[in-house]
Design brief:
The complex is a heterodimer of chains A (80) and B (473). Chain A is an alpha+beta fold and 80 residues long. Chain A has helices at residues 2-9, 13-29, 34-56; strands spanning 62-68, 71-76. Chain A contains three helices and two strands, in the order αααββ. In chain A, strands 1-2 form a two-stranded antiparallel sheet. Chain A starts with a helix and ends with a strand. Chain B folds into four domains: 15-109, OB fold (Dihydrolipoamide Acetyltransferase, E2P), CATH 2.40.50; 129-267, Succinyl-CoA synthetase domains (Rossmann fold); 306-420, no CATH class; 423-465, no CATH class. Chain B contains 13 helices and 13 strands. In chain B, the strands form three sheets. Chain B has a five-stranded mixed β-barrel with strand order 1-2-3-5-4. In chain B, strands 7-6-8-9-10 form a five-stranded parallel β-sheet. The termini of chain B are far apart. Classes of the chains: A alpha+beta (80), B alpha/beta (473). Chains A and B meet through helix 2, helix 3 and strand 1 of A and helix 4, strand 7, helix 5 and helix 9 of B. Strand 1 of chain A pairs parallel with strand 7 (171-176) of chain B, so a sheet runs across the interface.
Chain lengths: 80, 473
């Protein structure tokens, strides 16, 4: 399952929450064997934690972008 | 003539009362309220409370005042000799007995041409399909990078940064642009172009409120086309809620204000949080009910699978098989006896041991099942269930078919035996001799001289005594 955690780590929020929703729906539909149910549950928990982590993130960049000599340049931007 | 003799007392009012009446008259006269007046500004004086000036045209003039509350909404500085259109009311200043025009909104004159140009461009681009709903792209639900094309110093970027702080976390990339005056349209187009290369998920194009002239860059065709051709979805946020520009019509989404744009693009954190919580709750509920369902099914299976119960069940089958074997054995023996009664050599043809072997192999099959069950090697419940069903059905079916086989084989043998029945031969004139113990005598060596024998004829038997014998050479 740690492989899956690594996989999830690379997922965007959108991807994670969509995957999570898909898994919840699959589990809700029922008819799965026990191994699959447990697998879904474990994956869903990893996805949920990942979503939470991204959501709780507060680090963000505020930059301005300029084009100088044909190349884009970012610099931090402050507002009062 | 004294005052007392006057027939009626004339009404005498104070100056204040007079001017108050005039004021009320002004207020009640629609033609003097909420009107547009065009004229030129003259004698402009700026005071902390507002601007005082005269509005005049070739034939007349009127004092005018624009208080600070109205002045704050202006996006240009009134100047001497400027031609303007002013919206407002006639007001009476009672202490001085003067009336003046109180300006609430002021616009520069000469806007008529712009309106015509705006409508023409809107019609042309609309017909070309630039505003088509089918071209509008959906905004990404959770953008990580938001591009903003606006003035670096204006309130727009400030409002967007502040509003987004409490929402889904995203980087904000500003492409500074000139948003009014000469070259503004080109600058906005450039900002959209740069951000299209900057890996942003969505772009806000906007500026704060202003006169129609100030917003004009957003009505330029090159801006409309840049928005239309942008690969990244664009949200417009131009002016106030009531201002509509061509850019608003082309944009994928029009936000009423810059703050509104940030709110449309980034969902509220709390809202997303409760969505995650609700998914978690659903997950746990689904897992619980899944386990409950499984444990219920398991209990049912378990009662079947309970080792003791299963062993007992299989033992019952085993006993059942024993009984079948005895029955088969008995059946075979009965048939044998029947056959023997007719022809004593029949035992060579019938092979009861073969039938018993068949049943015995069934018994071994059941035992194998029993062993496998004991080993408990079947991983899933489903497999176990299938196996249980198999164990239940298979032996019964197999035994029945074996017995049927056996039965039809015995039937066939009996018929063959009937064909060989020597008694049938007797009707053709032959006799059969048996010894006293019932053995058929077929060779001369079987017979001893002096022995008593029975001669079987078609319709009866006769006893006889052997007096002599001679073997044929």
């Amino acid at each position: 399952m740690s492989d899956y955690a690594e996989e999830v780590e690379k997922m965007s929020f959108e991807e994670s929450i969509n995957t999570l929703e898909g898994l919840v729906k699959e589990l809700e539909a029922g008819g799965l064997d026990l191994d699959r149910s447990i697998e879904i549950f474990e994956k869903a928990v990893i996805l949920r934690n990942h979503c939470r982590k991204i959501l709780d993130e507060s680090e963000r960049k505020i930059q301005k972008i300029m084009e100088s000599s044909g190349a884009l340049k970012n610099e931090d931007f402050e507002v009062d | 003539m004294s005052v007392e003799h006057r027939p009626l007392m004339p009404e005498v009012i104070s100056v204040t009362e007079l001017n108050t009446r005039v004021k009320e008259l002004f207020l009640k006269t629609p033609a003097l309220n909420d009107i547009w007046v065009s004229g030129e500004i003259s004698g402009l004086r700026k005071y902390p409370s507002g601007y005082y000036f005269v509005l005049k045209d070739a034939g007349s003039e009127i004092h005018a005042v624009m208080f600070n509350s109205a002045r704050m909404r202006m996006d240009f500085e009134p100047q001497e000799n400027m031609k303007v259109r002013s919206f407002g009311n006639i007001g009476m200043y009672v202490p001085k007995g003067t009336y003046q025009f109180i300006v609430e909104v002021m616009e520069k004159s000469g806007l008529g041409d712009r309106y015509i140009a705006f409508e023409a461009l809107k019609k042309r681009l609309g017909e070309e399909g630039l505003f088509d709903a089918s071209h509008k792209r959906k905004l990404p639900p959770y953008p990580r990078r938001i591009g903003v094309v606006t003035s670096q110093s204006g309130a727009v970027i400030h409002d967007i940064i502040m509003t987004s702080a409490s929402r889904f976390t995203a980087d904000i990339i500003l492409a500074p642009a000139k948003v009014q005056g000469d070259g503004a349209a080109e600058s906005i187009v450039e900002g959209i172009r740069i951000l299209n290369q900057a890996d942003v998920d969505v772009i806000i194009v906007g500026r704060g409120g202003g006169s129609i002239e100030d917003l004009w860059a957003f009505n330029e065709e090159i801006v409309a086309r840049a928005i239309y051709n942008s690969k990244v979805p664009i949200v417009s946020a131009v002016g106030h809620e009531t201002d509509f520009t061509i850019a608003d019509f082309v944009a994928d989404v029009r936000a009423p204000t810059p703050t509104g744009a940030a709110a449309i693009i980034l969902r509220d954190k709390t809202e997303i949080g409760s969505e995650i919580d609700s998914l978690s709750a659903r997950l746990i509920k689904a897992m619980q009910s899944d386990l409950q369902f499984k444990s219920h099914s398991f209990e049912i299976l378990d009662s079947k699978l309970d080792l003791k119960a299963a062993t007992e069940e299989l033992n019952l089958y085993s006993m059942h098989l024993d009984e079948l074997m005895r029955t088969a054995d008995h059946y075979i023996k009965t048939k044998m006896t029947e056959a023997k009664g007719r022809f004593s050599t029949a035992d060579v043809r019938l092979r009861p041991s073969k039938a018993l072997e068949d049943i015995d192999s069934l018994r071994r099959m059941v035992e194998v099942s029993l062993d496998r069950l004991r080993l408990g090697s079947m991983s899933t419940l489903e497999n176990r269930k299938t196996l249980m069903d198999g164990i239940k059905e298979r032996p019964d079916r197999a035994i029945i078919s074996k017995i049927q086989d056996l039965d039809s084989r015995l039937e066939k043998d009996s018929k063959m035996l009937d064909g060989l029945n020597p008694l049938n031969v007797l009707t053709r004139g032959y006799s059969m001799i048996t010894s006293q113990d019932g053995k058929v005598l077929t060779a001369i060596d079987d017979i001893d001289v002096g022995a008593s024998v029975t001669i079987h004829m078609r319709d009866g038997e006769a006893d006889a005594k052997i007096t002599n014998k001679e073997k044929r050479k």
